[in-house]
């Protein structure tokens, strides 16, 4: 089992939901984490909670994944603080749903820009530091990356694209010792698409479950690479 205490990780969209669950799991293992949000106050509030847990150090940034420059600044700040970047978790995402008749051009563009181009930007910014550390790149996709549904034209397109992007990049980068995994969750308890977590979400995948999965991946022997992982709730409600 690989030791991960003292490693450094960037988590985009790390102020809540899946991103925060991953950050929490890594902090508990002594990993130093940098979290980003489009809101500096949200990033700082989440960082305070993480610092209170103890374990690793925390950096908080206002950064938009749609901006390559923003992602480069975060990576540079991590290198300045910790001297290295070991893990990058491209988690930030958005969902707009509706039939092709109702989805707007603006909603389409935002979905593609954040869910797909945003991961491209995060990946591009991190490649050289990850080469140095022989690090790990993890993208958070979705079961919607292989399962299409009515009203999902924008979201399906972004996640199908993300799965394809991730698998191609995995093949591009493994020659440098960089590992890459895409995690494809089904229903998760989160704040996604304006949802407020409630007791009725108990059957869903929890953010801490995905956090544990990231820890397990980081601790796995480097000879083995789970390149694509589908994750489902064990007992969804009967329809």
TrEMBL record:
One of its GO terms (biological process) is monocarboxylic acid metabolic process. SMART domains: PKS_KR. Gene3D superfamilies: NAD(P)-binding Rossmann-like Domain. Pfam families: adh_short. Residues 7-191 form the Ketoreductase domain. InterPro entries: KR_dom, NAD(P)-bd_dom_sf, Sc_DH/Rdtase_CS, SDR, SDR_fam. Belongs to the short-chain dehydrogenases/reductases (SDR) family. This is Short-chain dehydrogenase. It comes from Persicobacter diffluens. The lineage of its organism: Bacteria, Pseudomonadati, Bacteroidota, Cytophagia, Cytophagales.
